[in-house]
Amino acid sequence: MGLALLALAAIWLVTWNLTAREQSAADRRAAVLAADMAETYEAQVVRALREIDTTLKLVRYSLDERPPQAVLDELSQQDMLPPALLFEVRLSDAEGNVIASTHGPSHTDDTTPVAGQESLRVELHHQAASAQDSRLAFHRSLSENGQQEPGWVSVLVSAEYFVSGYEPNTLKKQGVLALAGEEGIFLVRRTGETVHTGEQIDYAHLLEGNSGLEEPARVSISEWDGVPRYLVARPLFEFPIAIVVGLSQDEQMAAAAELRHTYYWRAMLVSFVALAVLTLLGQLSWKLRRAQARVLEERLDHARRAEYLAFHDNLTGLPNRAYFSRLLTKGIQHARRYDKQLTLLFLDLDRFKAINDSLGHDAGDELLREVSRRLGRAVRESDTVARLGGDEFVILLPEITEPNQINQVADKILASVSTPFTLVGQEFRITVSIGIARYPADGEDEQTLMKHADVAMYHAKEEGKNNAQYYSEQLKTDSLERLALESSLRKALERQEFLLYYQSKLDMATGRVIGMEALLRWQHPELGLVLPKQFIPLAEENGLIVPIGRWVIYTACRQNVAWQKAGFPALSMAVNLSARQFLDDGLLRDIKGALQASGMAPELLEVEITENMIMQDMPKAVRVLQELRGIGVRIAIDDFGTGYSSLSKLQAFPLDTIKIDGSFIHDLLDNAGDRSLTEAIIDLGKNLGLTVVAEGVESAAHVEYLRRHACDQIQGFYMHEPQPADEAALSLNKWFGNEPTI
Length: 742
What we know:
By secondary structure, the protein is an alpha+beta fold. The chain is built from 24 helices and 29 strands. The strands form 5 sheets. It has an 8-stranded mixed beta barrel with strand order 20-21-23-24-25-26-27-28, surrounded by 4 helices. Strands 6, 7, 8, 9, 10, 11 and 12 form a 7-stranded antiparallel β-sheet that branches. Helix 1 (2-62) runs antiparallel to helix 6 and helix 10 (361-378) packs antiparallel against helix 11. The longest helix has 61 residues, at 2-62. The radius of gyration is 37 Å and the shape is elongated. The model has no long low-confidence stretch (mean pLDDT 83).
């Protein structure tokens, strides 16, 4: 009997312990859930209030001599005002008369703001007996420092808008979302499905002793309905409003209470069985404890996994865009509060798309994972590395603002990323472009700081990639000009604004013109003649280079045939291919179509590519070049000597011509290094059986030097600058009519 009583005591002690643990765990979960909901709700409300306040300031600053209604209509047409379906923007004079509104100037159903206050003011307006018809009005005075006529600009929105994003499964019937005004009323309160407005409250008592940031919520009895809740009430920074989030203690603990009843029922059953079979008691108790521990652990694992997936990138494990946005906002708030500074780095991988397309997405994913690991090793533990998506990363450097310190971090990142990668058994190099923006000098909020860092990153790409650039106001101006140029570029082809210039190539042995090179120009209606270096990178980025390159091939082939029909000898025609065009699957189809449409002999067409283009993906480059060679098209490597190709790799490609870059020819007579490199390239071409063309020839001395060293062909300003088709025809007349010698 004593053993039975001891066993029963043990059973009930275990049952009480388990229920107490479940009760405590449920209490902690509810407290943390309420605090997390408060942070999310606070962020949503602050974002909405900032957008409303920005709208008020925008309208106030946009007022000029025009009628106020015209100003509102113009801003609305430009999509610079919030949607009229939810928001009303209005202007009132000093007496409160509505003089303009996005809902029509006759819309005058609300009270007038209290005069004499120029800061942001919030009022609750009742339009009907139903709380659903109540609206919150946000006002700012038009008379800022006496610079405007007295009056008000207001934004009105349904009070229910601020509590519409609730989750019924979480709030349940007694959960609360609310906004409280400093004047001691609930601007809006949602409890379950019911919305209330205008209730009187003790504002100071509501906020007294409430939970701080990142602290679990505390249980308190709500003064408005007497319901115990896990309550968080917190004033908003910069706004005369406090957010209130509450979860009913009874509802949140209901599952724990039900589980407690289940435990007690089981304990009674086990107690009854224990009186009959003492030997079975230990086994049943042990199984029960194991089962409950497993269920609890599974729940905790699920909660931890769900929270992790919500705020981290699945591929790299880094914080994602949403989580980094919260971290950056908190960092800015901390820096503002304690008068500190911080630095934001915006990173974008160079040439990632080419690797991803050529090696496959699995290799691209592995590359992103390795880059994320290298970035983590390149910064301090206190710094934050996040992935925004694709090949974009951001790094937050708190309390690093000195340029020399920032430069050290940027250099370390550049060096770490540029170390060779091994993917699918091959070694690859990739670089990164970095944009740098600093708080508060380059922006005082998350959106501005991110945008300016992005602008600086694009400037780094324009500067040749694999470098870091700081944001400046000039970059912002350049970025706007770049957007305008890109917008015009999209329409240039259909408006027939592109044209081709032609430059001749001379044979050193005969002194005769043996070919022409087609060079693209853009005749912009406002900017005049735009050179390729100004718009080709833009076209390369947005994909327009493919249809533009197709137009170049067709136009050059037609012009070549037209010159033949005009009586000129059959000349070769060289066209340049961009990297994106070279890797495009439709390249071979475009070239065949141009040759067929124009009737030009394939052997007269010569496509020019660069060393770097063929080094990006050698197997595909060899395949494309062999296909071009198969239809009779000649192949030349342009700007030879400036890339990274080796002799062993060069032998693998079906080439006809190598063109010595003009930078070596320019200083040929004065620079021994350029002379040695030029002679080496000529010897290399001869040994490989290739035609060697020297670009950038500008003087008779250049010609004489190249003749002595057996260069095959020359091209440059010595003959003539690139010319439109009609002027090039006149030059050809002179060459073939007078048969000049070089």
